[in-house]
Amino acid sequence: MKKLILQRLLQLIPILIGITFLSFGMMRLAGSDAVTERYSATGAVVSQEVIDAAREELGLDKPFLTQYGLWLFGLLRGDMGTSYISGRDVFDTFVSKLPATLLLCAGSILLTVAISISLGIFAATHQNSVSDSLLQFLSFIGNSMPNFFVALLLMQLFSIKLRLLPVLSEGLSLRGAVLPLLTLSISMSSKYLRQVRAAVLEELNKDYVTGARARGVSDAIILRKNVLKASMLTILTLLALSIGSLLGGTAIIESIFMWDGVGKLAVDAITMRDYPLIQAYVVWMAVIYVIVNLITDLLYPMLDPRLRFEEVE
Amino acid sequence: MKKICLALLLFVFTLGELSGCASGRPPASGDKTSQKTLTIGDTTFNPENAEPDVNPHNDYAGWACIRYGVGETLVHYSDTMEVEPWLAKEWENVDEKTWKITLQDGVRFHSGRTMDAEAVKQCLEHLIEVHDRAPNDLMIDTMEANGQTLLITTKEPRPALLNYLGDPYGCIIDVDAGFDDGIVAGTGPYIALECESGDHLKLTKNTDYWNGTPQIDSLIIRTITDGDTLSAALQAGEIDAAYGMAYESYPLFENEDYVFSKIATSRAFFCWMNYESPVVSDPAVRKAIAMGIDKQSFVDTLLDGNGYPGKGAFPDSFSFGGDQVETEEYDPQGAMQVLEEAGWTDEDGDGIREKEGQTLSLKWLTYPSRQELPLLAEAAAATLKEIGMDVDIQVSADHNTIVEDPKAWDVYASAQVNAPTGDPEYFFSVCCLDSSSKNKGHFHSDKLETLEKKMAVEFNPAKRSDLAVQMQQAILDDHGYVFCSFLQMSQIAKANVKGYTAHASDYYQVTADLDIE
Predict the structure, then answer these.
(1) Could you tell me if residue B148 is inside a domain?
(2) Which of B48, B415, B420 is closest, CB to CB, to A85?
């Protein structure tokens, strides 16, 4: 296990260099820079001298490789730089916004797991019933709607019509979190409900289930002790793979609900070509991907004894 | 099925409980307590808009300082963008380079310090020391403070000095009070208490205000960058007023529950001609473009009436704007005739004209950050095609780089505030002269250069206004620029909000007149 962890952490080094270099290059290819975007946003026209001075101050007048090299050198020293737009320390800014995003991600994953596993199992055990068809139909609808559209529908219902929940989040409050969490969970649950249903159905049709039933083991016990455990491997893989889309999804949702997290920060940074902040977000995403995949790999043998056996062999 | 229904019911009840037991949303208005609270949702107060705080000496944060009633400038712009007294009671030109400014009496900063000439001098010195644009705009050489009189000497004659002093960066603040957390001590009707640009700004009324009685006890500016969220927040009653609402949301508020305040600004959507272009360098083509764009239809249809068709560089509300100049009207038949006479004919019958092997095809460069610009490109492409011009639209965020290459574009459509300080010289000096940094189309007019030399030393406002008309006419006669429309700015508020009025300068959003019933 230690070897695996060390191996993954070492793999992180080339991944980080490659991905940050690519994102740095892609932002340059996208054109414009923080200085022109800033003056463009204000609608004001300033002299070329002012623009040149601002570019020089931020180091944007330097060649591409020099800029990347300076950023990488700073990162190695633990300095992620200063935001071109706010002038604040990137690491401090990022860390101050991280709890909001982590709360949103963790909350939506928990809600998704709770909804999709319970309803997925229910649909599988009631295959071809009215409720199964209804759940499949709802999951189809949920899958078809993009996150921002779900967010607007929820706002319309819960904030404008019923006036139960706020449109704008007020800091890290439970009330403010409900709509963003629901928005993220509806989309993910719709997808996983179908996956869980399919995984459970596959297990239910296996010979060992028939054998257990023949020996008089109740359906509830088979489901809880065998089927669910066997299905967890598939579900866990899906959840791990979805971390990326979840983090990408929070960026939009954070912007819509004014949830002050790193996703909103990243969207704003991309708009304004705030390279140091974009790079910080890219590093964060890469680290999260590697860590989540590592945790998933470590969990596999715990869920499936066959994998433990293969490891010993 | 029963279990699902039960689960859904439980979920709805949980939501109800959550909303009931929570600490409660902040009151959007002061109607239930003796304290008046008002919340304004605003799309612009964020670092991305160069407003990282309310310190006027920091970038464009002066806009936030003046907009939200924290700071005030020496002069105020009237509805027609002419300068009028504010913190300065009166002024006079001692000579071409010397201005004697007399300040109002009885004005105090939020810090309690009296606003006198020494405080203003200290503020302007700090501004010149730290700001990027102010030193070149103001060109202040020396200042002398004596009681309420400030004597300013400029490095060279600066007729528009007062206009520049009305720019938001010119908000007069008590420098000694510091800049902690981006909060400054101004002289405005509201005192900044808590500032987190991109999220919110909390203000309280200045009970010691010199120019009226502020009515709102607690004022909150809430940054809401997403247009749909802004609309939902106003509908849900979480905010009382909104600035920056998307046009498509307007119909939701066109009823008795809300009031609109609309005004034309000098933010113009206009086209620059590229004189290096083999096609556009032909005067007939430029004239045909000016005659071939249906500005009225663009404003009425694509902007849904949220704009004003343009004639010259400045809107109607300016003494030197609107109908003061003559320009081409939309006349497709006339445009076709102009092209025919110049030898541009459609020989191959494909609907696009040619001349000496050159196809009449325009590379139209614009950018997406202003929602009106891609629409303008589409509207122009449609009507210009009718007169035999092919328009190849390039909408790019990288327009600032592309425009540097004269071979990459023929027409460049952009949006900019042409008279942010109410003075006309700014537009010409930045965009149209041989020395202008933004004159990427290499427009040149001997007449304009001569007029600018006069403008640079003319102090009389009426004569400056007259020169501005002549200068506009010079660029319009050569069809070097086509001014398509001006932005109509709208602020929307609940019907019980009073005094939330849009101003042509886009600066004075919160004043002592703001109230909620």
Answers:
(1) yes
(2) B48
- Angle formed at CA A87 by CA A84 and CA A93, multiple of 5 degrees: 100
In the three-class reduction of DSSP (H, G, I as helix; E, B as strand; rest coil), residue A45 is classed as: coil
Q: Is B368 in CB contact (< 8 Å) with chain A?
A: no
User: Cβ contact (<8 Å) for B60 and A168?
Assistant: no
Token reading at B166: 């009305």
Count other Cβ atoms within 10 Å, centred on residue A111: 17
pLDDT category at A15 given cuts 50, 70, 90 is: confident
From the candidates B400, B418, B507, which should be mutated to test the interface with A, based on the most A CB atoms within 10 A? B400
Show residues of chain B in contact with A131, CB under 8 Å: 1, 4
The string of pLDDT tens digits covering residues B80-89 is 889 999 999 9
pLDDT over threshold 70, residue B17: no
The pLDDT assigned to A44 comes to 63
B310 and B184 within one domain:
no
Which CATH number fits the domain that encloses residue A302? Answer: 1.10.3720.10
> Is residue B280 classed exposed, middle or buried when 0-12, 13-18 and 19+ CB atoms within 10 A define those classes?
buried
Give, in order, the Cα–Cα distances in Å from B405 to each of A56, B310, B402.
22, 27, 6
**B405 near A CB under 8 A:** no
**Arithmetic mean of pLDDT, B302-329:** 91
Which domain, by its residues, includes B201?
2-243+495-516
Q: Across the interface, do B229 and A155 touch by the CB < 8 Å criterion?
A: yes
Strand, coil or helix: what is B84?
strand
Which of B11, B12, B19, B199 is the mutation pick for testing A, counting most A CBs within 10 A? B19
